[in-house]
């Protein structure tokens, strides 16, 4: 509080002066039109707060002869949900599935891979314009829960990796099957379930309870 005469400083530099109730709060370009002094209460106010306003503020009053130090800290916004995708298998025998978790970076953001309740790895970056990527390789088959978590000091979001969808569908097979019958299930080579009774060239069929299971071959 500055009832009559005093100053306000930000990180050691003077940003506002009150002299016999005459004020000048326009000297610092950073706080221009945002720093105000109330001649009734003697209080300084800062409007339109921004992340870069974080730091230490010092108020000195000649009348009351006291030093008041205030620290502002702005936490990041709520985080977006991470995206999990699969990439090419890294082993020639198709026993390894490569997962990739990605999210747009933000202030204070950290990206994690969890297996059940254990952290497998993590990453972060000071480059706020970057997209964070966190890879993970797992051996097939795996029934464990793999979860990608993005967090900052105020929030977190999770995405669970669907291993069946991400690791057991060959993209070529999936496209071939879904284009013809519209539904696919998981296997190493892919399969389609259909009520269609028409035989297709190069595709084998097996009758099960009025439902045909079409086994799709990559070279068919």
TrEMBL record:
- Which residue ranges does the record assign to the Ig-like domain? 76-164
SUPFAM superfamilies recorded? Immunoglobulin
Q: Which PROSITE patterns match?
A: IG_LIKE
Q: Which InterPro entries match?
A: Ig-like_dom, Ig-like_dom_sf, Ig-like_fold
Annotated protein name in UniProt: Ig-like domain-containing protein
Q: Which organism is it from?
A: Electrophorus electricus
């Amino acid at each position: 509080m500055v009832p009559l005469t005093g100053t306000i400083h930000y990180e050691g530099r003077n940003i506002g002066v009150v002299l016999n109730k005459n004020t000048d709060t326009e000297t610092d370009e950073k706080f221009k039109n945002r720093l105000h002094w109330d001649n009734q209460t003697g209080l300084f106010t800062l409007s339109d707060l921004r992340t870069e306003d974080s730091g230490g503020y010092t108020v000195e009053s000649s009348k009351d002869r006291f030093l008041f130090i205030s620290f502002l800290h702005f936490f990041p916004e709520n985080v977006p949900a991470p995206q999990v995708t699969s990439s090419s298998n890294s082993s020639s025998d198709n026993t390894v599935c490569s997962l990739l978790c990605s999210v747009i970076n933000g202030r204070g953001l950290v990206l994690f891979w969890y297996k059940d309740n254990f952290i497998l790895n993590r990453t972060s970056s000071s480059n706020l314009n970057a997209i964070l990527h966190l890879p993970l390789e797992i051996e097939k088959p795996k029934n464990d829960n793999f979860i990608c978590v993005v967090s900052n000091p105020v929030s977190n979001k999770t995405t669970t990796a669907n291993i069946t969808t991400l690791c057991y569908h060959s993209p070529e097979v999936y496209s071939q099957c879904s284009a013809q019958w519209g539904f696919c299930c998981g296997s190493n080579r892919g399969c389609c379930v259909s009520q269609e009774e028409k035989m297709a060239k190069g595709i084998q069929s097996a009758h099960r309870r009025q439902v045909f299971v079409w086994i799709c071959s990559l070279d068919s």
